[in-house]
Amino acid sequence: MSWLHAVNRSAGSNVVQKEWQTTNSAHYRWFTDPVSRLVHPESDHAEQSRLLVADLHGGYTREGGDSRTAELVDALNRESPECAGIWRERPVLGPYCASKRFRQWQVGTLELHCQTLVDPDQFQRLVVYTATPGTESHTSLLLLSMLPITQGTPLSGRP
């Protein structure tokens, strides 16, 4: 059983498009919108913040100072003291994606392992989350696959 999550950093040609991309980035929302953090247990927030900044640092290093990633980093360093502080430490991603815990409002906390597939030419990444068979998280993922899809959740407060 897996949970797919895609992150797409697509190009924008005008200021409105660039602003939309920045504010719709999962990285940007994590540091500027407290509601976005509700999906992870609070005890995991510091580690998640470091992982996101390390990801930005890697993108900035690959793409350079005139890139979309650089624009996002500049915006976050202006708007988020937490992000700016971690950025100064220059964190680096490890070679693998560690287990993560997610809070899901219908089944509780899920502990999932992840694999990352990268398409550097398209600036896309596919992260596949899986649970170990026989665990409570695996059972919860199976249950989620049988529940109807809803528009909003109590955790997000959004439609």
TrEMBL record:
Segments forming domain MmyB-like transcription regulator ligand binding: 18-142
Pfam families listed in its UniProt record: MLTR_LBD (PF17765)
Gene3D superfamilies cross-referenced by the UniProt entry: 3.30.450.180
Coiled-coil blocks: none
Record InterPro entries: MLTR_LBD
Protein name as catalogued: MmyB-like transcription regulator ligand binding domain-containing protein
Organism: Streptomyces kaempferi
